[in-house]
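Field reference: "sequence" (input) and "structure" (output). Example, Dehydrogenase/reductase SDR family member 6:
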Amino acid sequence: MMGRLDGKVILVSAAAQGIGRAVAIAFANEGATVIATDISESKLRELESYPGIQVRVLDVTNKEEIEKLAKEVKRIDVLCNIVGFVHHGTILDCEEKDWDFTMNVNVRSMYLMIRTFLPKMLEQKSGNIINMSSVASSIKGVHNRCVYSTSKAAVIGLTKSIACDFVEQGIRCNCVCPGTIDTPSLHERIQASPNPKQAMKYFLERQKMGRLGTTEEVAHLFVYLASDESAYMTGNECIIDGGWSM
């Protein structure tokens, strides 16, 4: 059977675990050649057993590393910027170093990746960029997510800007805005809280469906956006949150 992504070369950041891992595997299962990147080499290597996935250790905040990888990649059909960091707290809990670190990881990394790989897409006269945003952004105010929500609102703005500037040159750009997803990083934050049991209860209670989303559910949306099935979509924030933002 033909895969929905046959023949496509897709670069994925933050692919070692969580949503990024699920997305990389889903892409490969649909026939894509996937270049899976992350800073965690040990976890990244686990993906080498999946047919169609190549792994590269990459710090997406390092311009030189990104440019080096770009020289190795001859063609890129889809760029998926998934890397992100969640800071907990209000603006009064956010020191300048927290602000700078979050913006560097969540926004500047996407600027660097797009700035580097977009010219290849323009040469090809086709390309597709999918950015990871969040419901915690310009979509919904969320308690204790000041700098995180600010950074993810910036991702939505970046996405719309890229979509508008390059739509006539064959480039599409959309972003995915998840709600609370069951990921290793979420569980790490829960366990680091003063009362993990209460923290999990809080996350579940705010979900109208009564459960967390799965990484596989988010990956299905990424597959759709990466495929030609979504060819008429660009500049959209695609919400997948179990109704949290209603």
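The chain has eight helices and seven strands.
The domain at 9-181+214-240 is CATH 3.40.50.720 (Rossmann fold).
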